[in-house]
Amino acid sequence: MRPGIVRRVATLALQIEPDRSRVLQWILHTPLPALGSQTTFELACNGQGERVIALLRDVLAHPGASPPQLPQAHAAQ
Fold it and tell me: Contact at 8 Å (CB) between 7 and 13?
């Protein structure tokens, strides 16, 4: 894991979701389908944290009509 990658992810995530506890839950427990359904923490531990950084930067750059939200796993239908 690159030093500081989780902090960089958290800093970007807090620009989308200001609740620190929600950001921590997201980092540790939310699988990201766009990134192989791994959590942010798993990706960071596997040296792929920059992929999460890119995803969050994309969300911030293209928020759409509603306020930006942290990427979420989609519920099974």
Answer: no
